[in-house]
Amino acid sequence: MVTKVYTFLVTYEGLEDKIWRKIAVSSNYRLDQLGYAILAAFDTMAYHLFEFHYGGERFEIPNEDAFEEQIDMAVFKLHQLKLKIGDRIRMDYDFGTTQTFWIELVNVEDMGRGQGTRYPYIIDGAGCGIIDDMSSEELQELIAQIDNKGRTDDPIYYNNRTFPWDYRWFNLDNTNALFKGEIRMIEEGYEPFWY
Q1: 110-148 b/e with 16+ CB inside 10 Å = b?
Q2: Is the peptide bond before 62 cis (omega within 30 degrees of 0)?
Q3: How far is CA 58 from CA 51, 68, 90, 91, 101, in A?
Q4: For the chain, how many structural domains are there in total?
């Protein structure tokens, strides 16, 4: 089987035109790895649980206390979903203050020989990311304030610092320069707790 490159348009629910990424990954990527890439791409603190929903199924790290059946995302590869262009996966992050991402497959192509190390990478995007522990509604209000006044009224705690955050800060080159390293750190942070 030829490895494919899947390009996903990932949007943050409620702010689809303000905070989004277009991410290219290998079809051999596991679902948990896609989750780590999304958390890195949206500059999260990556300290909450997450799960995926697709085709009536729920994918997460197995939990013996779960009330419904689940599929282990860490052993399920993207190509096993048999996605078609336009199909969407929902990712929920932080079950206390749920942050929802919609992941739409927008392109599939063969991966060129010797190109595997190129992926994952971010093709394009907007918005510097999300703020952990802030609901979508609160983030929408904050962004509306920035759009109206050109700034926030109060400093925001973001990425271990407090400063006047602005969603418009997004630099594709800088984000890609750190992207794979961020994914690796996130994966190392989650996996001791999974197994």
Answers
A1: ebeeeeeeebbbbeebbbbbbbbebebeebbebbeebee
A2: no
A3: 7, 9, 10, 10, 15
A4: 1
- Does some domain include residue 159? no
Contact 170, 128 (CB under 8 A): yes
Q: Is 155 inside a domain boundary?
A: no
Identify the band that residue 73 occupies on the pLDDT scale cut at 50, 70 and 90.
very high
157 has pLDDT over 70:
no
In a domain, 109, yes or no: yes
Give per-residue pLDDT as tens, 94-130.
988 999 999 999 999 999 888 888 999 999 999 988 9
What pTM did the predictor assign? 0.91
CATH number at residue 116: 3.10.290.30
